[in-house]
From TrEMBL:
The Aminoglycoside phosphotransferase domain, residue ranges: 105-292
Organism whose genome encodes this protein: Corynebacterium nuruki
Name of the protein: Aminoglycoside phosphotransferase domain-containing protein
Top-rank taxon: Bacteria
């Protein structure tokens, strides 16, 4: 792991190369980071070439692709892991490059000021000292929560509308970066998050745990994987929304684009409705908050995607996406990383069950399942002639009972 001084020197060099002059970076403030990443806010001494007075440096951990014998299985695995890590950083850099071209009012996150993929470092504009949605949704009063959720819905909608026609531009940037860094450009799609595989892994885990999965739920699950590629409602999305990576200042900023790409826009809505499935601390939104959030989002996107005003169709898409999120998050919470999921299988597969998971992870799963139960119950009331929703409600209730038997209960305010 690099020292802070080394990270500052590296970032200053990048900024100097990009903007000119010799910027001096001081007063580093640790903003926390996932795994071994270093995220720092630093002051920039007055510089006529750089308007920013503070910047954020994100230094990702190094990747070792070497091994004693290049022909061994271990060497091949390390090389694959190194390529995957480089591809993930390219995706994040490209996401910033693409969104930085948007008008300021539609831009979802900070500006990318400088970067070096080989050295695994990015320098970003500072989003400021706002409040994270983790704090807002956990401790703030009802009206502040509702106001923040309305702003989140509108921000998601504006971003999606602004990027509705941008998929080819995003893919072109990705392919160029792949070629520039010696990666096969035809593997760009392979390096994207495989939603269908994650859903299938989660479904298998439920079945091995003795959970009965009806044909209706299995069909919703299959549709959840397929929607990411064939949905007509596609736009740029951070996808992995977590409340600690969403900041509210005078605007809403999304701070993590590691999983960003063009996908089904309903997935983002379902992620919030489900209480952020990849976050183990956020309590479930109540019915009124969900309605206000969805209304704020749909008011922004309806001009481009009028189908969102068709309640029956939107309810079906949301139930599909909620089931998808439950199964995806179950896979991630159980296995830990996408790399582990990709290699899961073999003799150990039969031992993979819910009762092997930590209680905090089970509680997070229970929160997502409770959101499915509530939403499908509401959909059944609004669509009494559709037999699918009572089936989903029954599945969710049965799974909640199983989780309660393991000591896990939904997180509800």
């Amino acid at each position: 792991m690099l020292s802070i001084d080394a990270v500052l020197d590296r970032a200053a060099h990048l900024l100097g190369n990009r903007f000119g002059g010799t910027p001096e970076l001081t007063h580093p403030e640790d903003l926390g980071g996932s795994s071994e990443s270093v995220v720092l806010r630093v002051k920039v001494t007055p510089n006529p070439f750089l308007q920013e007075r503070t910047v954020v440096i994100k230094q990702l951990p190094p990747v070792d692709a070497t091994a004693s014998d290049g022909a061994t299985a271990e060497a091949a695995e390390m090389a694959e892991a190194a390529e995957a890590a480089e591809a993930a950083m390219i995706r994040e850099v490209v996401a910033y490059q693409y969104t930085n071209t948007l008008a300021e009012e539609n831009r979802p996150g900070p500006l990318l000021l400088a970067h070096d993929i080989d050295q695994r470092v990015m320098v970003l504009s500072d989003a400021g000292d706002g409040t994270s949605y983790a704090d807002i949704l956990s401790v703030d009063g009802d009206e502040k929560r509702r106001s923040a959720l309305r702003k989140l819905g509108r921000a998601l909608g504006r971003m999606q509308v602004a990027t509705a026609d941008g998929e080819e531009a995003f893919n072109t940037l990705n392919r160029r970066q792949y070629s520039r860094h010696g990666l096969p450009a035809d593997r760009v799609d392979e390096r994207d998050v495989d939603v269908a595989a994650l859903v299938e892994q989660g479904l298998g885990l439920l079945r091995r745990s003795g959970i009965e999965v009806s044909d209706t739920v299995a069909e919703f699950a299959a549709e959840a994987g397929q929607r990411q590629q064939r949905s007509r409602l596609r736009a740029f999305t951070p996808f992995d929304l977590t409340p600690d990576n969403i900041m509210l200042t005078d605007r809403v900023d999304f701070l993590d684009f590691e999983w960003a790409g063009f996908r089904d826009i309903v997935s983002d809505v379902a992620c919030v409705v489900a209480g952020f499935p990849h976050d183990t601390a956020t309590p479930l939104l109540d019915d009124g908050e969900i309605r206000e959030f969805i209304d704020a989002w749909s008011s922004e996107v309806v001009a481009v995607w009028p189908d969102v005003r068709r309640e029956n169709e939107l309810a079906g898409a949301l139930v599909t996406s909620l089931i998808g999120w439950a199964l995806m998050s179950l896979s991630l919470l159980y296995h830990g990383t996408l790399a582990v999921i990709a290699n899961a299988g073999g003799a150990e597969e039969g031992a993979r069950r819910l009762d092997r998971m930590p209680e905090t992870h089970l509680a997070d799963l229970a929160t997502t399942i409770e959101s499915i139960r509530r939403f499908s119950l509401h959909a059944a009331e609004e669509n009494p002639d559709d037999p699918r929703y009572p089936d989903v409600t029954g599945f969710a209730a049965g799974l909640l009972e199983k989780l309660a038997g393991l000591g896990a209960y939904p997180q509800i305010r």
